[in-house]
Design brief:
Layout lengths: L8 E4 L6 H11 L4 E3 L3 E2 L14 E2 L2 H9 L3 E7 L2 E6 H8 L4 E5 L2 H7 L7 E6 L3 H11 L4 H19 L6 E4 L3 H15 L16
Parallel strand pairs: 1-7, 1-8, 2-7, 3-4, 8-9
Antiparallel strand pairs: 3-6, 5-6
């Protein structure tokens, strides 16, 4: 059972939508207010990624066993790799009194909505599928088949993200500064800190 604490903030969006960049900006500006829930994955680390910082890297066998033990809040399989948020990862952040931020996929969002965490759900939308493809190609991290599969998944994610009722807010990331400003405004409106001060303490106006 995950102990009660501030409502988690969930960021979701297709790979290449810019949600990770928005997350980094948020954690950099408010390091004492937000904590990142480090997910587990069975994929190999990319260059520059560190175990326990970007992901907890594990094997399929170990992760499947942990899922059987009920240790995960949500799991999903993406491009042949497993991803998931463990209950402990969320508890570790919430024990500090910080707002826990989750960066998860659509399937994970569906599962987290079934818990008693009452997450605030943000969907980050790319300007277009064409722009998304350009960003993914610029990364140069996947072969053509994997990239096409990722784009196919992105189209489904965008469709789900735009459906009314699936997310509390949809942020169009066609301009990073504008998108981040929208995210800050949404947080300021929804995370009034009842214990430590007013909502202006979370995201003070500039």
């Amino acid at each position: 059972m995950v102990q009660k604490g501030p409502r988690p903030l969930v960021l979701c969006g297709p790979s290449g939508s810019g949600k990770s960049t928005l997350l980094k900006m948020l954690l950099k500006e408010f390091p004492d207010r937000f904590g990142f829930s480090v997910s587990h994955t069975t994929r190999q680390p990319r260059p520059g990624e560190k175990h326990g910082v970007h992901y907890h890297y594990t094997s399929k066998e170990e992760m499947q066993a942990a899922i059987q033990r009920g240790e995960f809040l949500e799991t999903a399989t993406f491009s042949g790799n497993m991803y998931g948020t463990s209950k402990r990862a969320v508890e570790d952040v919430r024990r500090t009194g910080k707002i826990c931020v989750l960066d998860i996929e659509i399937e994970g969002v569906k599962q987290v909505k079934q818990t008693d965490l009452e997450p605030l759900l943000v969907f980050v939308m790319p300007p277009s599928v064409e722009e998304l493809e350009r960003r993914l190609r610029a990364r140069n991290t996947e072969n053509e088949a994997a990239l096409q599969k990722r784009l196919e998944t992105a189209r489904k994610e965008i469709e789900f993200g735009q459906m009314p009722g699936n997310f509390h807010i949809v942020i169009l990331n066609d301009n990073l500064d504008k998108a981040y400003s929208e995210l800050r405004d949404f947080i300021a409106q929804n995370f009034e800190d009842k214990n430590e001060g007013s909502q202006s303490d979370v995201c003070p106006e500039q």
